[in-house]
Amino acid sequence: MPMSTEHEQLVIEVLAHIYRRIAWNKIHTGKNAWDIWNHRVRAASTRSNLNEFVSRLSNYFGLQHLPPEVLPLLDSLQPLEQEILNRLYREHIPFAMRAVVRAKAMKEEQS
User: Cα 76–20–99 angle (5° rounding)?
Assistant: First the structure.
């Protein structure tokens, strides 16, 4: 089953939840935060399944948990996890940056 636009949006939503949880003010580096984010999304995509991907990406940024609303999203993406991981590896910058945009929109919605 090919990955639909709806599935892409779910992946972006998962990434946005992770991005929002990162304490960027505590990450001290000379590099652009988006460059770090993009690189770590790609690096984590080499894991064998989506749960490992999310765990590894979260751990890169010192996150020990995620919001519970991420779990149903992950469950719905399970059947396509290999395609998703392959797409994230090949297209990490567009996915990661769409997640940044979504995370900012989520923050504004919350305000």
Answer: 60
Coil, strand, or helix at residue 52? helix
Residues 13 and 73 sit within 8 Å (Cβ to Cβ): yes
* Residues whose CB falls within 8 Å of the CB of residue 84, separated by 6 or more in sequence, listed in order: 3, 7, 11, 50, 77
Q: Whose CA is closest to 40, among 22, 67, 13, 66?
A: 22
DSSP structural state of residue 4? P
For 21-78, the pLDDT digits (tens) are: 999 888 877 778 899 999 999 999 999 999 999 999 999 999 999 989 999 999 999 9
53 in Cβ contact with 88 (< 8 Å): yes
